[in-house]
Amino acid sequence: MEANDALAMVNLGTCYQLGMMGLRQDNAKALELLDKSAKLGNNIAHFNLSVCYQKGSIVEKVTRKATYQKQLAAMAGNVQARYILGCDEGNADNMDRAYKHWMISANEGCTGGIQEWFCNER
Predict the structure, then answer these.
(1) Could you count the other beta carbons within 10 Å of the beta carbon of residue 101?
(2) Does residue 115 sit within a domain?
(3) pLDDT by residue (tens digit) across 50-98?
(4) Is the pLDDT reported for residue 9 higher than 90?
(5) 105 neighbors 79 (Cβ within 8 angstroms)
(6) What is the torsional sign of CA 22, 26, 27, 32?
(7) Does one domain contain both 46 and 100?
(8) Does residue 118 form part of some domain?
(9) Residue 35 domain-assigned (yes or no)
(10) Alpha helix locations (H) across 1-122?
(11) CA-only gyration radius of the chain, Å
(12) What's the rounded Cα separation, in Å, for the pair 16 and 14?
């Protein structure tokens, strides 16, 4: 944390979000840490923020922000975010864009089990 380690921040933020590792649940602290980690370019933080905005878990549900965080996560190399963007495009009948996202995610190692879980979770 003190060394601006983005992975440490996202891990600690998750602990605050879920009330794990002896920490009390603190959504404000979780959001602060996830946001700081995302600003340092951590794709996991961007992805976690997208899920938070999509579900409204520690922040108000804002689909536009969820999509933006998902796009940032995908551009930073998060294969799950890339796959979900494909699902979003497929649901919007933009199949060419959907296939491109899915192919990129598959080429980067996204497996079928993960893909099905993310598309069916929403």
Answers:
(1) 22
(2) yes
(3) 999 999 988 999 999 999 999 999 999 999 999 999 999 988 998 999 9
(4) yes
(5) yes
(6) negative
(7) no
(8) yes
(9) yes
(10) 6-18, 27-39, 43-55, 63-75, 79-91, 95-107, 112-121
(11) 15
(12) 5
The Cα–Cα gap between 114 and 83 comes to 9
- The model's pTM is 0.82
Residue 5 gets the label, from left (phi > 0), alpha (psi -120 to 50) or beta, of beta
**Whether residues 50 and 1 fall in one domain:** yes
User: Given 60, 87, 108, which residue is the final one in a domain?
Assistant: 60
A 10 A CB-CB count for 114 gives 14
- Extract the tokens encoding 39: 């600003």
**Do 21 and 15 contact (CB within 8 A), yes or no?**
yes
Whole-Å CA distances, 88 to 33, 85, 120? 27, 5, 12
| Listed residue (21, 47, 16) closest to 33, CA to CA | 16
For residue 116, is it within any domain? Answer: yes
Round to whole Å and give the CA distance between 12 and 42: 13
> Rounded to an integer, what distance in angstroms lies between the CA atom of residue 24 and that of residue 114?
30
**Structural domain span for residue 109:** 78-122
